[in-house]
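Troubleshooting: if your tokenizer reports a length mismatch, compare your output against this known-good record of 158 residues.
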Amino acid sequence: MGSIDRCIDLVKAGWTTGDAVRAALHAAGVYSAAEIRELDPAPGRAEAILRGEKPRPGCGSQLKEAVMAKRKVAGKVAGKAAASKGMSCLDAAVEVLKAEGPLGCADIVSQAVARGLWATGGKTPAATLYSAIIREIARKGEAARFRKEGPGRFAVAS
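Known-good structure output:
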């Protein structure tokens, strides 16, 4: 039986895809036991895979809970920083565009953060701003604070 067939059989037996791939590659000699342990640091999970047993549900839950808690704390800290500034991304964008003229969203975000107008802990603040501007233009039409100047570029509406 090839690695792919073994992997498919394990997935059909209820294994997660990642666990099935690791087990199949270990059985084929592609990964050593040390590499399997390095790939899956969750307590008990790698050992079960090495024994050829389906890892029990929740083997990695402690690791997952720790990661989720860290993300939640980071989000709260970033949210508090943004809230303490008191200016929304759209309000900050208006201020930057009034001073600089037409810009792309990445430039607007960098200017707003550099000037201390807006704080963000998000992974894609430029995409968030772009979406918010497009939504405002679509909802408010002529009353919107922004106008589209070209692909990805915006200016303050007159």
